[in-house]
Amino acid sequence: MNDINPQISLIGTRPVRPDGVSKVTGTAKFGNDYDLPGTLAGKVLRSPHPHARIKSIDTSKAESLNGVHAVVTRDDFPEQDFGYVGPARTQINMWHMTRNVLAREKALYEGHAVAAVAAASPSIAAKAVKLIEVDYEVLPHVIDVDEAMKDEAPLLFEDMIPRGYEPEATKPSNISKRVEFAIGDIDAGFAEADVIVEKEFKTAAVHQGYIEPHAALAVWHADGQGEVWCSSQGHFVIRTLTAKICGMNIADLKINPAEIGGGFGGKTIAYLEPVALMLSKKSSHPVRIAMTREEVFRASGPTSGASMWIKIGAKKDGTIVAGDTIYKYQAGAFPGSPVMNGCLCGLAAYNPPNQRSVGYDVVSNRPKVAAYRAPGSPIASYGVESVLDIIAKKIGMDPIALREKNATEQGAQMIDGSKLSHGGFLETVKAIKDHEAYKTELGSNQGRGVASGYWFNGAGESGATVFVNADGTVSIASGSPDIGGSRASMAIMAAETFGINYDDVRSTVNDTTAVPYTHVTGGSRVTYATGMAIIGACNNVIEDLKGRAAKIWDVDVEAVDWSDGHARPAGANVGEFEPLSLKDLAAGASGTGGPLGSTKAITAGGQAPGFATAMVDVEVDPETGQSSVLRVVVAQDAGRAIHKSYVEGQYQGGAVQGIGWALNEEYIYNDEGKLENPGFLDYRIPVASDLPFIETVVVEVPNTNHPFGVKGVGEATLCPMMAAVANAVADATGRRLTELPMSPPRVKEAIDGRSEAEL
Q1: Strand pairing of 68-72 and 84-85?
Q2: Is the per-residue pLDDT at 165 higher than 50?
Q3: Which pLDDT belongs to residue 91?
Q4: How far from 374 is each of 48, 180, 277, 297, 455, CA to CA, in Å?
Q5: Is the dihedral of CA 238, 242, 248, 252 positive or negative?
Q6: What tens digit of pLDDT does each residue of 588-629 get?
Q7: CA distances (Å), 234 to each of 260, 290, 523, in order?
Q8: Domain 34-139+211-262+267-299 has CATH 3.60.15.10
Q9: What is the DSSP secondary structure assignment for residue 184, as one 8-state letter?
Q10: Nearest to 240 by CA among 229, 225, 255, 230
Q11: Rounded to an integer, what distance in angstroms lies between the CA atom of residue 483 and that of residue 233?
Q12: Sheet (strand 446-455) strand order
């Protein structure tokens, strides 16, 4: 039973998902499914060069083409002030943002948007963009993060002075920012160590792998107001960014959420929305733009590739005494990699007393990175957890036992000086340790790897509206796009709060005019934070219902309780009254005060971090270097699973993405700085035939700050996966690969002895 609320009956069940029928039957409307009378086709002209100064743009030939209604360039958008705003981990610079939407002084990556047209048909639009003449001064480019940091590297911004140095830096660089965190005495910590392992690792940039490309339909109304339909993880954020880029008041823009064919963090940035809206303004027609798959790869953000140095010291008994790490993350063409997250997450599952972590945010000539499931943490976990695996082998300790011994607990000192607010990590380690899979024997050329990971989990701003219909059914609306089952989880929590059936609740995601501001669906925040808003609004309605029951019974409101969907007398001394159901009170609402409803806007705090531990078995073919995944078990602390099937699905999805990141996936650039694999035929994500069934263990250590014990579950499972696979490959081959992906040629090279041995 739930320690928070022992009356729970719906939490943890598996009811039918509200969006299931529409998606199965094909009636669900995604970003590119919306249409309006007179809609024009939009098309974007993109730079063929990874780095080039834009000397001039001539659109006259495109504008004169029959069927072309509008052309936009950099000159159609207002200039933005330069400056970083927002929390340190997620700062936004609108000067950068508007230049990512349409290039100004320079094209900074192949595929960078330079201009756009709106025409009567897609074919005319495609012909028109080819008529736009751009005079480029081609410049030297840099793709790799280590190369970009060198003094002689070509500069993307000639006036960018790195932030975060002491003393302050004075020379321009591709390093946008340096961050450093430390606790304890790092030198004294390593002096205590009996074994010290120091290694360098490298990861490639990888795509989030969402099915649906970016798409937007926009209309600029005659009264100066705008409206957009788009595929986004946060339509309120898209509204703010689009309004700012287009020089509008936020209140003059309405964003309608569409269904989302996957996001995983990649749909939290405005790409097409400002362009489509400005084309609509100039053409006086609605305009729809959709990226092709190739455009998605060339022009939207993957996650960072990275280079890192990891040094960890431990005693013979396995106690980790010191960790020193350096992370260099690709930001793409504009600053803003998740390197700070990597610094804070890498060793967070263990929190040794002596730590130092340094991070570099580095620009290079590739698309600006976007979030990807626990952004920054999986990269850091890959390096840290690989080194811990080596340490375990050096001291002859079971790798799960090493993690069990060092598992952080509530109240532990974090590297940023804060205290860990909640536990749950040790329970995930024990879940893997006790799983029957961990005790099975392995065959020839087979290996087993384990790893753990940490993610902050989010909270923040959320809004919701709840109202009771005349027949006693309940309608709930939130501002959180549903990409992981939030409509179902919101309905479950609302039904549980009221004490009614799940089937009596209808859950929707509403536009930016219908509910209060709600931050993005990301950071594993929605079930927690938007759930709190839903529960708060439900409780407001319940207080109203109690007041109306008190009026009917002619008693004080304090004499009325609410339980199991009924108003009930609070005690025997109140009087003999039959309980009034929600349906009863809804039917008579017009006579007791009118409509029943409430809107709740909150800035939630009190979220609990996410911990996960994974076990992976692989078999490596020594002849080809091919690694086959045989078995995967993932354990994550959910706090309390609201919809258990969705929770398990989140675990499985994170595991699959981590396997792809470890073995197959990477952006491949040629010497000309051009992407060579911009599509799923050449960018190899795992398919069903590559994978075993992903076994899940739902650990539940309730978060006491949430009425139903919720912790976020969308991201933490990805964090340990690359390291778990890498550790399994090392166990199978006796060789340690230090660069992802571990493609067959790289594994074969290691097996043949052309890389260093495991230890």
Answers
A1: unpaired
A2: yes
A3: 86
A4: 32, 20, 31, 20, 6
A5: negative
A6: 999 999 999 999 999 999 999 999 999 999 999 999 999 999
A7: 11, 18, 12
A8: no
A9: S
A10: 255
A11: 8
A12: 446-455, 610-620, 627-637, 694-699
Name the burial class of residue 200, with classes exposed (0-12), middle (13-18) and buried (19+) by CB atoms within 10 angstroms of its CB.
middle
Judge whether 637 and 8 are in contact, CB under 8 Å.
no
Contact assessment for residue 664 and residue 658, using Cβ atoms and an 8 Å cutoff: no
Pairwise CA distance, residues 533 & 540, whole Å: 11
Fold topology of 306-457+608-751: Aldehyde Oxidoreductase; domain 4 (3.30.365)
The amino acid that residue 429 corresponds to is V
290-313: buried (b, 16+ CB within 10 Å) or exposed (e) per residue?
A: bbeeebbbbbbbbbbbbbbebbbb
* 329/262 Cα distance (integer angstroms): 24
Residue 435 one-letter amino acid:
H
Exposed (0-12), middle (13-18) or buried (19+): which is 225, by Cβ within 10 Å? Answer: middle
- Amino acid at the residue 536: G
pTM of the model: 0.97
Q: What are the tokens at 512? A: 């930016």
DSSP character at residue 751: H
Mapped onto helix, strand or coil, the DSSP state of residue 398 is coil
The residues annotated with a catalytic role in the active site are 715
Residue 310 in this model has a pLDDT that exceeds 90 = yes
User: What Å distances lie between residue 135 and 46, 53, 618, CA to CA?
Assistant: 13, 8, 52
CATH number for the segment(s) 20-27+459-604: 3.30.365.10
Domain locations along the chain:
20-27+459-604, 34-139+211-262+267-299, 306-457+608-751
For 528, residues 6+ apart whose C-beta sits below 8 A from its C-beta are: 457, 458, 459, 604, 607, 703, 706, 710, 711, 712
Please check whether the two domains, 20-27+459-604 and 306-457+608-751, share a CATH topology. Answer: yes
